[in-house]
Amino acid sequence: MSDEPQITDSELQAYADGRLGEERSRAVEAWLAARPDDAERVASYRRLGEELRRAYDPVLDEPLPDWLGGTRAPRPRWHRFARVAGWVALGIVVGAPAGWELRDARQAAASRGDLGVVMAHRAAVAHAVYSPEVRHPVEVGADQEAHLVAWLSKRLGTQLRAPKLEAVGYSLVGGRLLPGENGPVAHFMYQCNQGTRVTLYVRTDMTGNRETAFRYAREGNVGVFYWVDSKIGYAVSSADISKEVLLSVANAAYQQLNPP
Amino acid sequence: MNEAERLVELIPRLRRYARALVGDRAAADDLVQDTLERAWAKLHLYRRGTDLRAWLFTVMHNVHVNKVRATRATDTLEDEMPELAQRASQGDALMVRDLDRSISRLPAEQRSVLLLVTLEDMSYEEVARTLGIPIGTVMSRLSRAREKLRAMMLGVSASAKLKLVK
Questions:
Q1: Mutate to test the interface with B, among A10, A103, A117 (most CBs of B within 10 A)
Q2: Among B16, B20, B88, B150, which is least packed, fewest CB within 10 Å?
Q3: What is the ipTM of this complex?
Q4: What is residue A100's three-state secondary structure?
Q5: What is the percent of chain B where pLDDT is above 70?
């Protein structure tokens, strides 16, 4: 026994995982050849790995639940958020660590003139205010879409478009005119079959803002993807869907509003 | 591809790991969602060019540890339960062989090491970095997890065999 190479337990583990170098692997094999019990132990480690992969790899192919981008799962998101004391609607975020960050970020952004962050905040507030509306979610309904777009374009002084989001499961409910910091803002509302709503906030006074990246922000329970294209700022908000789903909606809007 | 897109691509892997880690499907998806929320809020802290997967699994690990800590009272109880259940069901090969159950009986810190090595095929260095523990600890936890699982899977037959040998 003393003239045999010493094999550590770590080496046995690494050998079972196929992570041992060739030379040490040969030493381990020689060592195991004389020890059927240990050989069986190592073989069982490998079988265990195979069983684990067989048991859990199918999860990789499972469709994602709604909030992760797949079919809808019954998940009372509001209750979760309501449980967390201090999560206040209307963007007045208190207490939650993520909220603190965003609020700090917003204050910092406002002081250095980052209009994108300020816009994301206002878009989240607008979403929180209007999206729960049952009877009056919009001023002008989608049945008068041409009129809606012409009207908002005229008021904002820029030709606007209401993107078609059917491909990602959302259809236009309508829109309204909102007061912004320096002038009018267009607000489009979309809804999916399950009733979850997404709003698109458009302002046309983003002068002096050079930030054009696609960004994400969170205000309370409202998630916002926003971007700026020269002087037009866009923000896509929702409180009911996951970031991934919202991202796909925002991407669809982005593709149409900012064609390459 | 930017970080957000790569992050989304990693979701199925997060789900697989979470499922094995917490067992229950709904609880696993809860963990994934909390992880994603946290990751999104912290994405600015991720250093470009470093391993996004390791970073994301670190976020999940921390979220999980915090969740477990938050339910410490019930967790202590659960820690006691497997011992009792195991003893009571030792004759029941089906129960003992049930992979889910066996894994759930592993101490949490051993479970995460084994799952990262086995399911994620992480190197021991990656596991150490992800969990924030020394590599020696990774190795000892891996070894203990495997031995424990092996004993559970073999159940009574193993101890019986031990007596018969010789």
A1: A10
A2: B88
A3: 0.79
A4: helix
A5: 75
